[in-house]
Design goal:
The protein has one domain: Tubulin/FtsZ, GTPase domain (Rossmann fold, 3-Layer(aba) Sandwich), CATH 3.40.50. Helix 1 packs across helix 3 (146-159). 29% of the residues lie in helices and 21% in strands. It has 371 residues and is an alpha/beta fold. The longest helix has 21 residues, at 175-195. A ten-stranded mixed β-sheet has the order 5-4-3-6-7-8-9-12-10-11, sandwiched between helices. Strands 1-2 form a two-stranded antiparallel ribbon. The two termini are 36 Å apart.
């Protein structure tokens, strides 16, 4: 599968060895020869060196599992990668830890289908697998399994006072897809507010096409490698952690906030399906800028509580990264979800309010999920 335009070649990246990342000319072909998988979790503590961060990637549910496996196939990155799902028998690249929950065979978009069994399985998983300092979770917000597994993991990670970044995929093909997306977002909101925690999230809209979204997720995961895995002059581990948890600073509140990663000041999100902030926001909680040491002193036009900077030698724009957190969930997304429900339920139009559905479509269950 070809990479999105601007996606970097990470095949030669080794721990704490180099910051250089260049355009990938060709991708490694998909292989299904490997059926036995192994875990890289034993290596996790080796990563937090030279100012970099101990982090891992979890792909949960069908969509998240495929995204994590695809990233592992396209890039040779030495981080722990795990997939968790209620169904499937896909072969995975060597080094990807594949977990299929026993006695389950999917959820059929019905989030309550396996909620109890998933809750028990996640409790067991958490008890056996300590979290890294940062966990990146990829999953659908609209399906039946990933939208339960993902938020439950988020709740446990926040309980452990660790950092979690969510990459979510939104579908609005049907009433139930839209309801699931609303309830998954509300679940995140509950966990973040109850823990007084900061939850960075980026979301992709499948209306742009699955191939486009696949390439977009690959691109932002590549950006996350720059953010977390590559040493830069002037940027230490705590700089990266505090960027992702800016509510450490007075005046910054927790909650579910958009994180944006790009190589251009005005974003490079065209044609990747990313749900972007509404244009009227002008204040951020934190920015992190990686730029040439001899280049211009790049400044964003928005106001910001704290800015972190890292530098590299040379002038290759492919090595640049501009990261920001602090945008609220876009009202434009909430409007779209509400309008979709209007069309499916044949309701009169009404102005959307706040960041919730206009309908009573879910209640908080005993495990903290809005179902």
């Amino acid at each position: 599968m070809p990479l999105a335009k601007g996606a970097p070649d990470l095949s030669s990246l080794k721990k704490n060895e180099t910051h250089k990342v260049h355009t990938k000319k060709e991708t490694k072909p998909v292989t299904k020869k490997t059926t036995k998988t192994t875990s890289k979790s034993s290596k996790a503590n080796d990563f937090a060196i030279g100012g970099t961060v101990n982090w891992s990637l979890l792909g949960v549910g069908g969509a998240g599992k495929k995204a994590a496996i695809r990233f592992s196939e396209n890039h040779n990155i030495d981080i722990p990668i795990t997939t968790i799902d209620t169904s499937g028998s896909e072969a995975a690249p060597k080094g990807v830890n594949v977990i299929r929950m026993e006695n389950l065979n999917g959820s059929g978009k019905y989030r309550k289908e396996n909620s109890k069994e998933i809750t028990n399985a996640i409790s067991k998983y958490v008890g056996e697998n300590p979290f890294t300092d940062v966990t990146v979770i990829v999953h659908s917000l609209s399906g039946g399994s990933g939208s339960v597994i993902g938020p439950l993991l988020v709740g446990e990670i926040l309980r452990a006072n660790k950092v979690v970044i969510v990459i979510g995929i939104v579908d609005t093909d049907s009433d139930i897809d839209t309801v699931n997306a609303f309830n998954t977002l509300e679940s995140f909101k509950n966990f973040a507010e109850n823990r007084k925690s900061y939850l960075p999230i980026m979301m992709f809209d499948n209306d742009h096409g699955r191939r486009t979204v696949d390439n977009g997720i690959d691109r932002v995961l590549s950006h996350l490698v720059r953010l977390l895995n590559i040493p830069y002059d002037g940027l230490d581990m705590q700089d990266r952690i505090k960027f992702l948890k800016p509510n450490t600073f007075d005046g910054v509140t927790g909650g579910v906030k958009l994180i944006n990663l790009s190589q251009l000041p005005d974003g490079d999100w065209e044609d990747i399906g990313l749900i972007t902030p509404d244009s009227d926001y002008s204040k951020l909680d934190a920015t992190l800028i990686i730029s040439p040491i001899d280049g211009d002193n790049l400044k964003l036009k928005t106001k910001c509580k704290v800015t972190f900077r890292g530098y590299f030698e040379g002038d290759n724009d492919d090595d640049r990264l501009i990261a920001s957190v602090g945008y609220n969930i876009p009202q434009s997304l909430i409007d779209k979800l509400n309008e979709t429900l209007h069309s499916f339920r044949n309701m009169d139009d009404a102005a959307p309010t706040k960041i919730e559905s206009e309908y009573e479509i879910g209640k908080t269950s005993s495990n903290g999920l809005v179902m």
